[in-house]
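Appendix C reproduces, verbatim, an entry submitted by the partner laboratory led by Prof. M.T., so that reviewers can inspect both the input and the predicted structure.
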Amino acid sequence: MNTTLRKMARSMRFALLGLVSLALAQQVQAQNEALRKGKLPNGLTYYIYNDGSTPGVAQFYLYQNVGAVNEDDNQIGLAHALEHLAFNATDNFPGGVMAFLKANALTEFEAFTGVDDTKYAVHNVPTNNQQLMGKMFLLLKDWCHGIKLLPADVEKERGIIMEEWRRREGIDRRITDSTARVMYNYSKYAYRNVIGNEARIRAFSAKDLRKFYDTWYRPRHQFVAIIGDVDLDQTERTIKATLSALPAKPTPYDLEFRLIGDNSEPLFMQFVDKENKSASFGLYQRIRLANNRNDDEAVKNFLFTSMFNTLAPRRFARLKNADEETFIAASVSLSPLVRGFAQVAWDVVPYANKAQQAMEQLLNVRAAMANGGFSKQEFEAEKGKMYQGMKEALEASGLGTPDNVFGLMKQNFVYGTPITDFRQQIQRNIEVLVEQEVEDFNTWIAKLFTPNNLAFITYERTPGELNITQTNFLTALANSEKPQVAMAQDNSTPTKLDLSHIVAGKIVSEKPIAKLAAKEWKLSNGARVIYKYLPQAKGKVFFSATAPGGKAAVSPQQLPNYTAMRNQLMQTGVGGYNRNQLASWLQGKELDLTMSPGDYSDDLSGSMDVSQADNFFGYLNLILSRHNFSPSVFSKYIQRSKYLYANRATEGMEAAQDSIRQLLFPPSEANPVENEAFFDRMQFDELPSQFFAHFGNAARFTYFIVGDMPEAQAKNIATRYLASLKGDPNQTLPVPTAMNFASKEPVIKRRFNVDMQGDMAEIEISFANKQRLSDKEQAALEVMRSILETKAFDEIREKEQLSYTIGVSANYTSQPETSETLSIHLSTARQNVDKAVAKVYALLEEVSQGKFTADQFKQAVVPLAVDEQSPASPELATNPSLWMATLGVYAQTGETITPEESAAVEPVFSTLTPADVMAVATKLLNNAVKREIVVQAIAHEGKLT
């Protein structure tokens, strides 16, 4: 584009954006009329915002611009301890803030202490309770400077903090505390971990807390925010009347606490701990942020950071695709560090005996980004995605959730950033984004990767495990300025796939499927093709292939090898092409191809433009006949799998879910735990035979071609690309067996106490039976589910307010074996678990006894009855997905049922009676296998911290 055209295009863009901005500005003006900011004579800042979100409630916040970094060396941990004491006795709540909150059913509150600041919040305070609202302003006042710090309260909280410290004490805490020295260049941040250490926790006194509290908890460092359904004038008067009495005592100058000096030479550290789960290393670069939170440069930094975090990790993916990576796992990200700083973090887990090579590979990738950046094609593709995403986000209105608004208020308080409507912010982001070019992005990256403020850390179980010294690192860093191999290159990207191996086969028999207007062809290799010409697909062709088999046809002895084969599908390319070459060849082609081995079948599916049919089926032929397996990629897969198993969660919700799975589906030879022993049983030499057994034998498969492809072209495709595949009609898989690994215990009831934030509990109650249900009974089961869900919502949530969310699901299957299940899931507060569980059983009993109203029955039945009697859509006859399903039924059963006939079922819902619902409930629940699982948070005195 010449200069004149470029200027014209830019002017047109800004003209259009200007029109949108004008409309948004009018909305913003209206929005900001609901926002008020002020400052009291004592220095306390306040914000009031009627966000129009939830009527009848308000959120109360206190922000303290004080954190662990404000502590002296003999005060470590006191900022966090004060947060705990804030829920005890205060001037206006001598019985304790916690008692006040619980007595008034204010169960949603939180507190957080970080290295830079502290936050308190109470959520969903009913605004129609004027007495309670008045007390909330007193609570904010006390949190500002009215905590009593009584010795008895201090001793109580000391015990709680010690338990918190014990839970946090472990390898992760030791890593954080130790590596902070080089991360923060031995600044004050390096020695402030918020919670403190055991000695200080045991030693601090009420007097120590009072000194820290009186020094720092002052109006100059604080703001309060009330967000919600409030009257701005009345709220402002109350703030002034209540909080103006806080003393305006000066505080020490604190900016030097947050200084981190530059280090021109990289810092080096070896962290050795026997509990390190795997040997790894990281390169960390501290980035000083300019205080320009209110200009286009800041917007550009935000946009480029997002773009970097998407594009940069792909450099490691390209190495892996080319089978050139020397690492099990590698990551890179740019994220906030502490106030005024961000960090680029590169973390790598090297393969065994490859640490030096992996370090060099990381440094070479980094240098390549600094010196060459990213291609225009990469940049423009990501820019387009960001632009489209922001355009869609413009549908949002207002300033977001209350917590989002609080975040904007914090930015305003700390940096002076104006509080603007989110839509206005997004519009501004778009305006800046459209003006950026790849040269701007690459220049930004080059400035990011300076030689300053680097830290390199090795994480080892024994000294010298990685065999990387400081000299090794510095030498590799210097050499990386002119990397030999910065990233996998695709200099030999094919313009056309080599398909010279193909020898076309034949169609040996042909059978018309008259009712379906389709054709069935038998191929010379034993495969079957079912073809349907569907011009309404308008240039698109849909493909699928299926054969009985899957995991259910694998013997327990071969399960490890089958699992490895599934994982290695398409991991090393095909026909001599690596994944990067194939990705480049596929670029711009409308091809979609998926291999999806299932539990009971081996499947493939895909779609293409008809003009790309030869490319699609040639690619498919190459995959099925020239699939590559690489010993090195296999070895890396084994190492990576063992690493992930060794680093699996051992606490929290994820660990609880793993325990639940093993409880409900006990490990066995046919249902093994995928642990180190399982991975050790995998054999590379078995992968080709597993692949051929499941995908390589065309004689097992039925192929489906549906779409806007003429018959002559379809026959040519079938004979050239499908009939040429290897087929052995004598080779078969074992008959799939039902994969039912559920525990045989008739009743399982278990509660898991999990260390997680909040006071929540998750409840899952389920029933399973093996009764065959008629069509009418299946319909009654769905009606029963709907009635139960309605009753649970009305009774448990709305009337008794025991649950946050409720879901009821019912399912019936006849293949491979008959089963029906009913599951009820609740989220509730931990203290409500017993009541909620009892209520669920009571409701189930009521439904099975027919104790539901006529309106509840009608509400469940009518929509289903109306739906089943609605005339079939005329699009049924032209829907490719429905035709795929229809032809699949024919292939499996020989039945010729058109999509229209399938939709034209005999009415059943309209014939149901309450007695039918009672009967199916009784049939399902009698002698059913019952499961009652509860996962609940460990009690933490009701406070989030």
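The mean pLDDT is 88. Additional entries are available on request from the coordinating office.
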